[in-house]
């Protein structure tokens, strides 16, 4: 079938198998071109199929030589429908790992569920004995709670409405958007979905099963960003969930002696999760331009390799901020970059948006997430869309 991008709102409903393969290969090649990291040998990555989780899996495997188990929630191709990008990415990852003699297995299911936790523990026991790294990189819209009730996360403010500029990426025009406050119930639900409860449940189950190695490390990801996005992010419903994540990191380290939990505050990047947040895409397109001009721009893979190489597994205790968080947003938050964006923000409008914002760069990253617009891929060619993830066939 000839696969073309079909966008709906913030998502692309098709994915290109060859493009996704090339995307993963490019990330693998980047990591292999960097110095080896003396890091984990047996890693579990939850949310391993796209964005920061996929980049963490690649850094674990190809940067450290680790065996990896990845938990994903993706759809295979069916009839005229392509598989999800995460499905193709995972098929590509396993193929490339096998070529380098690296163990890689995947579980496709709901990471929040007891069944997937049990299946994972069984797999660790049988194949690896224990794990020395758990990466928690879920970005989920909803969670079915242990009592069977499904709750959703929202991207809203807390307390009062917030009005600011936003960009319509399709028409490339600037407008104002007002984000309404979340109800108390919505905030609680967002914490259930994107907070640290499930992360801690994973650690508790792995601990009880005796499959956490001595001196294991676990890391979950967060974002802070500049003041202009604070009402919608840091102080919004998602920010409340991230606060819960920090609290759970402290609890994990205290309650489970064999593991140290970290929060890594990562850079704002175009992923399926961030494209849906109002105001943020305009900020990201200004940020991309400013960071690219200074040669400081990084994608998920550069961020995650640097996290492993310079922070988590450098041999020394990772440097953290006063709240104990690793700051991979150090370059994004450089004062000169933030000052430039805040000055531009004040007078950005339709007339100047093209001069200041890297909208093309935004779209490039957006389409590349789904395997489109990758140099060297012939998109006029018929491709097989039904690609298997090898370990799911066993
Ligand atoms: P993403 O959407 O690219 O990846 C999310 C992953 O979670 C995917 O692999 C998806 O399949 C998986 N997933 C979702 N629901 C699942 C479920 N129920 N069971 C199993 N897997 C499931 O998102 P991302 O941007 O890489 O986000 C990962 C983490 O990084 C999040 O905690 C996010 O807040 C954080 N973060 C993102 C940014 C950013 O700008 N994108 C910045 C800093 C931190």
Brief digest:
By secondary structure, the protein is an alpha/beta fold. The chain is built from 13 helices and 13 strands. The strands form four sheets. It has a seven-stranded parallel sheet with strand order 5-4-3-6-11-12-13, with helices on both faces. A two-stranded antiparallel sheet has the order 1-2. It has a two-stranded antiparallel sheet with strand order 7-8.
Task: Give short descriptive properties of this protein.
single chain; alpha/beta; Rossmann fold; seven-stranded parallel β-sheet; two-stranded antiparallel sheet; 17% strand; binds nicotinamide-adenine-dinucleotide
Task: Please tell me about this protein's structure.
- The strands form four sheets. The chain has a seven-stranded parallel beta sheet with strand order 5-4-3-6-11-12-13, with helices on both faces.
- The mean pLDDT is 96.
- The relative contact order is 0.17.
- 41% of the residues lie in helices and 17% in strands.
- Helix 2 (51-64) packs parallel to helix 3 (85-99), helix 5 (184-194) packs across helix 7 (237-255) and helix 6 packs parallel to helix 7.
- Strand 11, helix 7 (237-255) and strand 12 (259-265) form a beta-alpha-beta unit.
- It contains 13 helices and 13 strands.
- The chain has a domain at 7-145 and 190-268 and 297-329 and 371-393: 3-Layer(aba) Sandwich (Rossmann fold).
- With 394 residues, the protein is an alpha/beta fold.
- It has helices spanning 17-32, 51-64, 85-99, 114-128, 184-194, 197-208, 237-255, 280-293, 300-312, 335-347, 353-356, 359-369, 390-393; strands at 7-8, 11-12, 42-46, 67-72, 104-108, 131-136, 142-144, 150-152, 162-168, 173-179, 212-222, 259-265, 326-327.
- The site of nicotinamide-adenine-dinucleotide (NAD) has 29 residues, from helix 2, strand 4 and strand 11.
